Recover the amino acids of this structure.
């Protein structure tokens, strides 16, 4: 993962396109349709499956309700799996925020929740284990709760909320925001004595009876042997990671971190990684008047400014079969702008971000079913799913439109070649933008014929830093990152 050595700006240049759109290294025809037209869950915070072969979906609602229903488009009502409305706090961003099923749920019936409570004038994040009812698979045993962790929250926002089991290690990962307010007034993100602004990792299968804990610290945690720091820490420097997910085939941990004033982030989380907050916001010094020391911090794999969206919602790497063109791409959205993107990450130098859908609802959460099909939950809306309007579900090659290949070399210090392919005769433009969105050079602006093309760009006389190559056709846009080093 790329560590920051200097502070410089990025601007994500993304086209706003229609519900069925074209905007990536290949044309992606995607539609978002109601998955369960007869159901409405107003405040969905998490969508999960139990992984037990039952083909059910479970949906957390901020108010404290946990719904379960069959994964059937004709379903007309949910069953109340668990009702926590009488014990949780729902002020501001608090509520029932996360659900994770134990990897052996089919055998042990354990599931875990992340929720908030108020005690007097104090607020807490609670991580608890519950059990399914021994006689009814669609009902939890409310009396089975075993509290794993209690974490005091200084404010009512930035609680994080996601919990998930690592596919390779079986440990429980927990996302916590910086505690709230604004600007991280307690500097929790960088304080290793605080669990806030972190992703934690615990072993729920081996309680630490000696220290009175219902879990233990994995020996490979970064501070497992350092009692001066929070030993549960896996990674830190996060503001409010609103949804993270594991990509099962690669084991990568993807996290979306909500920004403060200017930048939203997509991160790949590494053990022991410091993701910068509140030293940096995205790739930038959070305090623009302070030439911050960003050495050793890990920058995002992608970011976008608040001119594009104001509150990122993390999703999943798509591994379903309904939309083959999305396979291997990280799908995420923005609560404020209501857009959804597909991020195609191959390496630090080969990242493509494409706008694929504009939704009519504020994007609250994503989830997957047992077949890895992706769902989107929105504010006061129905749960939606992605479909391929062509009906292609066999993985057959879709119409690619225009393909923008990575610049060669990248990073560059002098002349680079930018290859691209066209599937037909069309008007095409290729433009270079700098990190603050200023146009540096328009390399192509003409009608071109079908086939393989390339254009050269001389970086000798421009400052080092991150730039963007943007290809535009009548079908949409694609943007690739170009790093210049002198």
């Amino acid at each position: 993962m790329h560590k920051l050595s200097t502070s410089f700006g990025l601007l994500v240049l993304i086209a706003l396109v229609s519900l069925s759109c074209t905007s990536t290294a290949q044309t992606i025809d995607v539609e978002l349709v109601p998955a369960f037209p007869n159901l409405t869950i107003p405040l969905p915070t998490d969508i999960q499956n139990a992984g037990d072969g039952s083909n059910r979906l479970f949906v957390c609602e901020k108010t404290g309700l946990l719904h379960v229903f069959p994964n059937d488009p004709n379903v007309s009502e949910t069953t109340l799996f668990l009702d926590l409305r009488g014990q949780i706090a729902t002020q501001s961003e608090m509520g029932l925020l996360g659900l994770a099923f134990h990897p052996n749920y089919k055998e042990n019936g354990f599931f875990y929740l992340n929720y908030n409570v108020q005690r007097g004038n104090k607020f807490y994040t609670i991580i608890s284990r519950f059990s399914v009812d021994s006689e009814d698979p669609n009902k939890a045993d409310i009396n089975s709760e075993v509290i794993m962790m209690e974490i005091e929250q200084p404010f009512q926002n930035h609680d994080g909320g996601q919990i998930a089991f690592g596919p390779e290690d079986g440990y429980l990962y927990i996302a916590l925001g910086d505690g709230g307010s604004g600007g991280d007034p307690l500097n929790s993100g960088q304080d290793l004595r605080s669990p806030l602004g972190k992703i934690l990792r615990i072993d729920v299968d081996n309680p630490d009876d000696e220290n009175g804990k219902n879990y233990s610290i994995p020996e490979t945690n970064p501070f497992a042997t350092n009692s001066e720091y929070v030993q549960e820490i896996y990674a830190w420097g996060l503001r409010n990671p609103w949804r993270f997910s594991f990509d099962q085939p690669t084991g990568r941990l993807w996290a979306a971190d909500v920004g403060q004033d200017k930048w939203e982030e997509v991160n790949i989380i590494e053990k022991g990684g410091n993701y910068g907050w509140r030293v940096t916001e995205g790739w930038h010094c959070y305090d623009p008047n302070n030439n911050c020391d960003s050495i050793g911090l890990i920058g995002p794999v992608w970011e976008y400014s608040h001119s594009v969206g104001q509150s990122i919602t993390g999703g999943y790497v798509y591994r379903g079969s309904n939309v083959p063109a999305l396979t291997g791409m990280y799908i995420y959205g923005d609560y404020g702008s209501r857009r959804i993107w597909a991020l195609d990450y191959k390496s630090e130098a080969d990242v493509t971000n494409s706008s694929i859908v504009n939704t009519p609802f504020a994007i609250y959460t994503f989830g997957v079913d047992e077949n890895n099909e992706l769902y989107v939950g929105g504010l006061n809306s129905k749960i939606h799913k992605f479909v391929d309007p062509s009906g292609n579900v066999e993985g057959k090659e879709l119409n690619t439109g225009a393909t923008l290949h990575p610049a060669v070399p990248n990073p560059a210090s002098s002349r680079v070649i930018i290859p691209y392919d066209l599937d037909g005769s069309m008007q095409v433009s290729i433009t270079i933008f700098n990190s603050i969105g200023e146009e540096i050079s328009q390399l192509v602006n003409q009608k071109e014929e079908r086939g393989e093309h390339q254009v050269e760009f001389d970086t000798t006389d421009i400052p080092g830093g991150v730039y963007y190559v943007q290809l535009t056709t009548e079908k949409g846009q694609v943007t690739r990152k170009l790093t210049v080093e002198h």
Summary: The two ends are 21 Å apart (CA to CA). The longest helix spans residues 105-108.
